[in-house]
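Notes from the 1:1 (GR / supervisor)

We went over the backlog. Supervisor wanted to see one worked example end to end before approving the batch request, so GR pasted a single chain during the call. The sequence is below; no edits were made to it. Supervisor asked that the structure be written out right there so they could see what the output format looks like.
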Amino acid sequence: MNRVAVRTLTGVSLGLVAGAALWWEDRTGTGRVVLAVGVLLSALALVELTRMFVDKSFLLVGLGALLFTAWRLEALGVFDAPALLRELGLVLGFGLALALAALAVRRWFPPGRLPLLARPVLATWIVFPLLGLMPFTVVYGTKGVLALVLLSKLGDVAGYFVGRAIGRSHPFPSISPGKTTAGCVASLVVGSLTGVAVVAAGLLHGTLLAGFVAGAFTNLCAQAGDLFESFIKRRAGVKDSSRLLGASGGVLDVVDSLLFTLPFALFAWPIWFSPDWFTQCWKF
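Structure output shown during the call:
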């Protein structure tokens, strides 16, 4: 079986597992199933980072972030969604700002090493978005989570196959040599149309135009997450974050797009899909 077939089979299997988790969450309606999944994915991703850079500080900082977030979730209450999203959103905004600053000075990064500041940035970049799935589920429900996953991953799938079929130019050779211009464009087109589809299917409530805009911007964030994770792997000198998922790589290789799309959704989706909630959520 070739690599494409194995990767497709792995993707379908992961999709079935995610669907089962969402079904279970829909039955309970507390957000705790999604939170447990987020904790598991965060822990596995932190282990991968620790192995990639042979640096236990990733695991230590990530554990601290996990404990802090669990404490805040307990203190604020599972159903205090606006307060949870506001707090997680502010932390995410700060963490992403630091991550962008680290990218801006990437020429200072020695191969295989990271500056001290980058370690907590990477650890929190992983932990907070994945645990943020819980309050996101409380607000948007399992249909909203399904919409987010579809908007984050379908464009990536389309970009992979179109890039392999007709991709010629490579816009990011130093970060992701395999990514092609044709693949990026196909990913954006499919992501935008997926935004229309999730609104038409009732997964999100809004206009078709809002779905198209949300799909386009969510896809751009997904592609940015993929590029950022590729950059991190090149710093570590590895092709995949691990071999845990076979041809699909590791946990980080699968959830990389969510690490950017979820923070974006926390901030931007309320503008398009729930303006009244947005007003209440950001009222200090």
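Supervisor's comment: The mean pLDDT is 75.
Batch request approved.
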